[in-house]
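Re: the 339-residue chain
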Amino acid sequence: MSFLTSSAWWRSHVNLRTLYMLFLGQLLSFFLALMSFTSSLIANLGVDTPITQTLFTYLLLALVYGGILLHRREKLRVSWYWYLLLGFVDVQGNYLVNEAYQFSSITSVTLLDCFTIAWVLILTWIFLGTRYSIWQLFGAALCVVGLGIVLLSDAGVAGGGGSQPLLGDVLVIAGTIFFALSNVGEEFCVKKRDRIEVVCMIGVFGFLVSVCQISILELKSLESVEWSTDLILAFVGYGLAGFMLYTLGPFVLQMSGATLFNLSILTSDMWAVVVRIFIYHQEVDWLYYLSFAIVVIGLIIYSVTEKEPDPVTSPEDGNPSYQILEDESATSRNESLAS
């Protein structure tokens, strides 16, 4: 391939939109890394309250974006029970991943958190009608291969960190299933509905679900917590970082989709390695570096071969999930006009 041909291909695939998406992705990556660090710090301080950690984030989302919705004085464009389901799966994803820090290292958790990509590819293909090119699938497959190396390390080949690394890995992978469901549901809503409404309702129902689960699972743990300045700062840092992640995330989901959203935040793994080496003073096996390199290559391949996102399947295309929400929106509008 000649230099001119290579330059033409690069210009056709890498434009301002791609660079802007990657920039937003790196902002998301930073806030995700901050969440990972504060969550692992809370675990290292001997506190096991994975649901309570996210409570402040959901409360902030509900208060800030709820105020905007109240100012608009508009009815919900999507029925409340869909948002309840979205909030429920989001809380479960956060719960399982945060709980994994009790058993595994920050590098393992942040790398395996990227298993969300595989589930998102499957779910968007089935429910949103998204079609991916061979190169996009190849890039995503490379990312999954890189994550498999982490499992190899934590299984004992190279020695992963944490008290029970394999248990932590299982919790993370289970959590990624819920994250994928949440990401795909959020992508659908922000592309076809209102971004402010979606973020607000995730906050409202995420907060309500969290309160219910805390009353069942974490009351005893909270009673035994010895609060300190470091612990309070860790909780506040996690809450603020989560608020920014949920605020910026819908922009990426709306402009591109859940797959690129998850691929873009893979670089948070680099920050996890830095934290483990310089803050926790732990050694990082060479397999983690190999895994990170493979994941980054997969991200680059996927990003530069991504096309403009197709519209989410319309009712005429026969997408049942879209038709359900569309029928409900029409019913809501008719009731509003009748009143």
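The longest helix spans residues 16-44.
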